[in-house]
Automatic annotation (TrEMBL):
InterPro entries referenced in this protein's UniProt entry, alphabetically: 2Fe-2S_ferredoxin-like_sf, 2Fe-2S_ferredoxin-type, Beta-grasp_dom_sf, PepSY, PepSY-ass_TM
Organism of origin: Pseudoalteromonas caenipelagi
Transmembrane domains' residue ranges: 12-30, 203-225
Protein name: 2Fe-2S iron-sulfur cluster binding domain-containing protein
UniProt keyword terms in alphabetical order: FAD, Flavoprotein, Membrane, Transmembrane, Transmembrane helix, Ubiquinone
Keyword Membrane (UniProt): yes
Domain of life: Bacteria
Gene3D superfamilies on file: 3.10.20.30
Domain 2Fe-2S ferredoxin-type: 245-338
GO molecular-function terms, A-Z: iron-sulfur cluster binding
Pfam families per UniProt: Fer2 (PF00111), PepSY (PF03413), PepSY_TM (PF03929)
Amino acid sequence: MLQLNKSLHKWLSLLVGLQLIIWLVTGLYFNLMDHKKGSGNANFRPVAHAASELNAPFIPLKSLDFAPAQQIKLLWVLGHPYYQITHHLGAHSYQAKQVTLLDAYSGQEAAINETLARTIALKSFKGAVNIISANLLQPPIAELPKHENPLWQVKLSDAENTNVYIDSNSGRVIAHINDDRRLRDLMFTLHFMDYFGTGGFNHWLIIVFAIATLLLSMTGITWLIERFNAGQLSFAFKSKKQRIKVIELAQQQTHELELKTGISLFDGLAAAGIVLPSNCGGGGTCGLCKVRCNENTQMTDADKANLSNSKLEQGYRLACQHNTAEVTEIEVRSRTFNKPKNKP
């Protein structure tokens, strides 16, 4: 069980650590970015829709036939009046709604067509630019995932590869999306972990990450308690020395070392200049830092998980799982010896 706790803690550390790095990088970007450029509005200009004078009297609403409505308002689009009749209205402007446009002069049903969309797009852009294409997109829309209504996408030929998005229900410019805005949106995606394009941060993935962070804390506390109970944690003012005889079998050398107590044998040997092999940094999962102790040395779960029964019976233990105070003599086969630092 403790071995599972350690493995889980390490994988959770990797997961949480990567996201923390992402938060650090994206947070730095948001602090240093040019917010006007990042919004995509560096070349945006408002479009004047209202007319200075009427060309004809409006058709009275009571004379028009239309389905029941939640909202009716007069809408100007490039100087022409329309009745915007909303049959179903969401709580937010980006939510799905059902709209009918009626020409306020003739009473005929109308629509924001491609010609209007192209004209609005050009009027909303500062400077001379050509149109590459204009398409009416149905949701979901990749660059504006929150919007649930059809939008006109007008692609412009500027250096920033701007796409102008226009509401097909009102003719209003929803956004200019260019390369600067795309970079900002990418950073928002990474920062809010919105990898599935929900357009917000209240989603299941961030909830799972919060649970993973909680588990990381819990497994870390459990591991800390385990190390404390095993005597592998100590305070500097309480530290003592333990004399240990270290025999290197491969080179037939013997070292007499004085190591601090209250730390693992793996860390104590490393501090003395003897680095044992390890792929897990002393976490008790790789099984490489084995040393031979007295066969009566207590076995840990990590010892049992990584060493064979015959090795255990011969007294082999994992150096990272045992305190320096537990042994007085060990044998190692490692060839990673450095010159011992405290040989008396």
